């Protein structure tokens, strides 16, 4: 089957969650990736949603973190305060899977404003629980579309720290965090089929560092695409 860049990104994001145990799900594209992972590489993964749901196993793709389908079949429903205090801040979340509007090479995330904070060009949804997830999850992955507007030298507002970020999956390739302290930075470790390093450089606002053993992502399987198109997102709410 042919596939889009967005489908490739979501599939790569789902595959990256193999072996994870407890995942705190961010809004947007991470939502469809984790639900694909639960149907493919990691059926036992426990999904946590900010609305207070632990162990979600939605029969259909939830349209938001407050979608009622998250409750049906879940292990537990609680208040947001209990979820954040007793699970996230207690260190019981292995992975936070987030989206971003802007990202810098150190993994810092902006989901607050584009432009000056007092007089922004665009007012974004803000942090929600992303800041707490970024600080308290064992590790963080980000799933986002890549362009020079999103991969920037300096973000306009730091909503969430990149201190626990381990990997970024985009519609062009995969970045892995390397280094310690001030030397922590994203390195391109994989490109998707048909994407060149030059394509990545043209869509990045900083000088791209490329791994010596740069990999090429395996194309989506027919079954992965079927799940995305027929079961998870038949109306294209996420994949357009």
According to CATH, the homologous superfamily is Glutaconate Coenzyme A-transferase
Please compute the radius of gyration using only Cα atoms. Answer: 17 Å
Q: Indicate the overall shape.
A: globular
Strand order within the widest beta sheet: 4-3-2-1-5-10-11-12-13-14
Distance between the termini: 17 Å
CATH class: Alpha Beta
In short:
The chain has 240 residues and is of the alpha/beta class. Helix content is 23%, strand content 25%.
Defining traits:
alpha/beta; Glutaconate Coenzyme A-transferase; ten-stranded mixed β-sheet; two-stranded antiparallel sheet; 6 helices; 14 strands; 23% helix; globular
Could you describe the 3D structure shown?
There is one protein chain. The protein is an alpha/beta fold and 240 residues long. It has helices at residues 5-15, 29-39, 80-88, 130-136, 197-202, 222-232, and strands at residues 22-25, 46-49, 53-56, 76-77, 95-98, 102-103, 109-110, 113-115, 120-123, 139-143, 165-169, 173-178, 185-191, 210-216. The protein has a single domain, classed as Glutaconate Coenzyme A-transferase (3-Layer(aba) Sandwich). The chain has a ten-stranded mixed beta sheet with strand order 4-3-2-1-5-10-11-12-13-14, sandwiched between helices. Helix 1 (5-15) packs across helix 2 (29-39) and helix 2 (29-39) crosses helix 6. It starts with a helix and ends in an 8-residue tail after the last helix. The mean pLDDT is 95.
């Amino acid at each position: 089957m042919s596939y889009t860049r967005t489908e490739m990104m979501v599939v790569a994001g789902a595959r990256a969650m193999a072996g994870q145990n407890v995942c705190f799900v961010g809004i947007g594209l991470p939502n469809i990736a984790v639900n694909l992972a639960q149907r493919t590489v990691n059926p036992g993964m426990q999904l946590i949603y900010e609305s207070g749901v632990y162990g979600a196993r939605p029969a259909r793709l939830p349209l938001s973190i407050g979608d009622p389908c998250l409750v049906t079949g879940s292990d537990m429903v609680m208040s947001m305060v209990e979820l954040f205090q007793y699970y996230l801040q207690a260190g019981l979340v292995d992975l936070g899977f987030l989206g971003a509007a802007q990202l810098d090479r150190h993994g810092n995330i902006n989901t607050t404003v584009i432009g000056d904070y007092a007089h922004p060009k665009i007012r974004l949804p803000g942090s929600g629980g992303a800041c707490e997830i970024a600080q308290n999850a064992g590790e963080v992955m980000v799933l986002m579309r890549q362009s020079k507007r999103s991969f920037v030298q300096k973000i306009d507002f730091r909503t969430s720290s990149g201190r626990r970020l381990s990997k970024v999956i985009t519609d062009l390739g995969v970045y892995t965090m390397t280094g310690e302290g001030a030397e922590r930075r994203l390195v391109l470790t994989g490109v998707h089929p048909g994407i060149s390093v030059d394509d990545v450089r043209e869509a990045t606002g900083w000088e791209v560092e490329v791994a010596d053993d740069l990999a090429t992502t395996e194309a989506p399987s027919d079954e992965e695409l079927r799940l995305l198109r027929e079961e998870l997102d038949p109306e294209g709410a996420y994949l357009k």
